[in-house]
Structures are given as C-alpha cells and as structure tokens.
Write a structure and sequence with these properties.
Elements lengths: L7 H6 E3 L5 E3 L13 H8 L2 E2 L2 H10 L3
Antiparallel strand pairs: 1-2, 2-3
C-alpha cells in the first residue's frame, strides 16, 4: 500500500505541540477590526488549540 500524501494546505495552517495537539491561529482577525474591542483583538493574536472533535481528522490529513 502506498504512503499517504500530506495535505499541504492543512499542514501550513497548524503546528504540532510536544504533546501531539495542534495549534492554529484564531479566525476573525483579517478584516472588520473596527467593530472589535482592543481586548478581543489582542486575544485573537494568540494561537488556539484545535478541539477534540476535529483533531483526529486534521491529524490524518497531516499524516501524523
């Protein structure tokens, strides 16, 4: 059976932590920023962890 190819689009959006979880940048920080509070924009800078419901799918696409 051949090797699975990594989905490069998925691999470019996520980073793997030391414990095997996935980190990704948060959505909502590209445009329409005038309606958001400074606190909300500041918190959107930090990357978030992928929830358990999607973790298995993304890991399979990244061949982990």
């Amino acid at each position: 059976m051949p090797k699975m190819k990594t989905r490069k689009a998925v691999a470019s959006k996520f980073r793997v932590t030391a414990t095997g979880k996935l980190k990704a940048s948060r959505p909502g920080r590209r445009h329409k920023l005038t309606g958001k509070t400074p606190k909300r924009k500041r918190q959107l800078r930090r990357p978030g962890l992928v929830d358990d419901g999607h973790l298995k799918t993304y890991k399979r696409l990244m061949c982990l």
